[in-house]
Amino acid sequence: MNALFKALNDETRRQIVEMLKERDMNAGEIADQFKMSKPSISHHLDILKRADLITSEKKGQFVAYSLNTSILEDLINWILTLKK
Amino acid sequence: MNALFKALNDETRRQIVEMLKERDMNAGEIADQFKMSKPSISHHLDILKRADLITSEKKGQFVAYSLNTSILEDLINWILTLKK
DNA sequence: ATAATATTTAGATATTTGTCTAAATACCTA
DNA sequence: TAGGTATTTAGACAAATATCTAAATATTAT
């Protein structure tokens, strides 16, 4: 739960997640959507991946990232327990 | 959304929220459940309050804190949009 | 093999965050 | 009003975080 909240506690990472909801994207394509440097985006992708929010697959010289929505169940369940 | 994720991105604060789910509590009662100093807990309460996750009401020399679950709707909705 | 492209790793740095102690404020009671 | 209890504010400090540039790695194309 810690890694999940940590991963989502950043506007850039939330935007990445929202982008990946629409379609899978390469690291470079993702980085192009931000003013930030590529290494910074790479770091954000790493944090999202550690939280299991995204998965990556190497395709030639590209790395395709996908959203993993199944982990969001845990988050929703945690929130729902608060609402009794 | 930022304040909300930020507020929940801390184990102590998540525990406070879980405690307040059971019953309203005074600042001191909350602090007693942790090894941490009272000022630190007060700071956490402030962050939760800014995120609108809790409300406070002064009752004499005590300050009673309550959980505000309505704000959780926003969080759930944000998550649900990701799941399409 | 060399060069070009895509991505990550390493290392540095400024900012943010969580924690503490000491002090201030607010309320209650004798 | 004086003293005690509850809570917050202020200020300091260490650890975590987000960002950058430079360099390393991996793949593709000439």
TrEMBL record, chains A, B:
One of its GO terms (molecular function) is DNA-binding transcription factor activity. Signal peptide: none annotated. InterPro entries: ArsR-like_HTH, HTH_ArsR_DNA-bd_dom, HTH_MetalResp_TranReg, SdpR-like_repress, WH-like_DNA-bd_sf, WH_DNA-bd_sf. Residues 1-84 form the HTH arsR-type domain. Keywords: DNA-binding, Transcription, Transcription regulation. NCBIfam families: HTH_metalloreg, repress_SdpR. This is Winged helix-turn-helix transcriptional regulator. The lineage of its organism: Bacteria, Pseudomonadati, Bacteroidota, Flavobacteriia, Flavobacteriales.
